[in-house]
Design a protein that fits this description.
Strand content: under 5%
Shape: extended
Number of domains: 2
Helix content: over 70%
Distance between the termini: 62 Å
Structural class: mainly alpha
Number of helices: 3
Largest sheet: none
Number of strands: 0
Order of helices and strands: HHH
């Protein structure tokens, strides 16, 4: 069954979905008419999901902050060293 599903088929679906979503969003913005509605339960669920993603992202950044700072410092040193070598 996997052999019958070709990659171009998935690309077509992705392309169609992307075009459809952009049409929905931009057409409703252009006309000034939005007929979309999110009920309170769905809004609350979305808010909770986004809050969880934000908290998890903040935790990851806090947990790996030392590694991130060291990586940025190494990158800046490497760039500075390359600039000094080019100046010579």
């Amino acid at each position: 069954m996997l052999q019958t599903l070709q990659m171009p088929y998935f690309r077509e679906i992705a392309k169609w979905t992307k075009e459809m979503m952009s049409d929905i969003i931009f057409n409703s913005i252009e006309k000034g008419e939005t007929k979309m509605y999110i009920d309170p339960n769905t809004g609350g669920l979305l808010f909770q999901a986004l809050a969880a993603v934000f908290v998890a992202g903040s935790g990851v950044l806090l947990f790996f902050s030392r590694n991130i700072r060291e990586g940025i410092a190494k990158l800046r040193r490497r760039m500075r060293k390359e600039d000094e070598e080019q100046d010579k």
